[in-house]
Every structure is written in C-alpha cells, then in structure tokens.
Automatic annotation (TrEMBL):
Domain of life: Bacteria
Coiled coil: none
Protein name (record): Oxidoreductase
Fido domain segment(s): 107-250
Amino acid sequence: MSTSGANADPLAALGALPGVAESVESVRKAVDRVYGHRIMRRRSNEITSEAALRGARGSAALSGADWALEEVRRRSDFGGDDEARAVGAALRLTAEAGQLLSIWRQSPLRVLARLHLVAAATNADEVGRPRRQGEPVDEPLVGLPLPDAQEAHGRLDGLAALVTAGGSAPALVTAAVVHGEILALRPFTSHNGLVARAAERIVLVGSGLDPKSVCPAEVGHAELGRAAYLAALDGYVSGTAEGMAAWIAHCGKAVALGARESTAVCEALQRGAA
C-alpha cells in the first residue's frame, strides 16, 4: 500500500486500482436500492434487526458454524459446543458493534479489544488484548502464515493510524482493508475472523454508507462461500495491486449481496409474508 509523497493517502491510492471504482459504484447502487424501498420509510427498525440476525448467522458460518437461520432465531442457549459458542459470539458482536461507532474513529484499537472481549466472553488473561510473543492462535479456518506478535502489533498500530487520520478513500475500500488486515494479522488468540467482520460492519455503518446497518456484508461473504473468501484473502495478503483489487471487489460483492438480502426482506414485509 505504499504511495509517493509525504501526505499521500494509501487507502485513497487503493481506490484508484483497476476495477475498484466500479466495485464502489456497484455497492452504492445496491445500497441505494434497499434504502429507497418504501418499507424502509416505515419499518426500517425491523429491517435493521433482521439484518443483524442474518449477518451474525453469516459470520458464524464463515467461522465453521453454518446453522440454518431459523435455528439461530430459535436458540437461546449458545454455550453447548464450539459451533454454538461461535454463533453466540457472532450474535454478541453484532449487538455490540452498534455501541462502538462513536469510539471507532478516535480509538480503533480500543474498539477491537472490546470486540475480542465480547466475542470470547471470558476473563482469561489473553482476552481483550493483542497476543504476545509465543501465544498460540486458535483460528483453524485461516491457514495463512501467522505474523509474529511484534509485526502484528506494528501493523495494527499502522492500521489504527490510518483510521484515525481519515482520508478520502471510499468506505468500501477502508472496510475491506480493516477486514483484511485483521484477518491477515490475527492479532488476538482467538475469534479474529468474527472480530474482523464486525469491524468491517462498523466501518460501513460509521462511514455513512450504510447508516441503518441494513446491508450485512457477512451475509454476502457467507453466500460467496468460504473457499472464495479465503482465495480473495490470499490476494490481500499478497500485497499486489491485482490481489488487493480482487479482495476489495470481493468485499464489494458481499455488501451488495447483503443489500439484496435486506431488499428481499423488504419485499416479504410488503407482501405481508414476513
């Protein structure tokens, strides 16, 4: 993500990569469609609630707990096994993300620590802080080489600096970089995928692209499939222009699919079927 010039904005430079502008425009049109639906004018709170549930289900599926939506809706106990705990963590993160919007731009590291604490739901020493040298990481579905703790800390600080500095990059680009960097670094000992997707949601909502949180990218990521998700992440980690553009495009497709999901919910409500 290097750029020339002392005041260069590396995220804005990513926005100029081939195909990224088209992804940004496609996402904007998809978001506009759902926000323009007549149901959104009267029942947006219901759409937001349903999007939160479906987003949590999608994020949990990418972490190995691919439950049917109705099972997620029905269950109240999420402590029984690893899959249930993953679903419970995803639901807690989705609820918590909305409470952290005002803090994100000032202190993204504080927000990430809070997200990890909420996801892990324990008081263990390693929870709510970046991992230390030698601590193992429980993220079996992401097989990328793991940066050591020192590199992870440095790059996490760099990511926080980009977020707090702001800039002119489209929300999709910033959200994709935040998501990809957290997954690449896996800065916590567990739940990094869930945290990364919750952070992506925070950027999309806080940026004003999706202020009512009705376009759950997690739904789209799950629909596109874990294999495509990990292949696109490989592109991000490669650091090449092509790989970065492919990851941003993948995230754009996920947001557009999330918007389509909520548009379908609007249509169902309009018909009186939901």
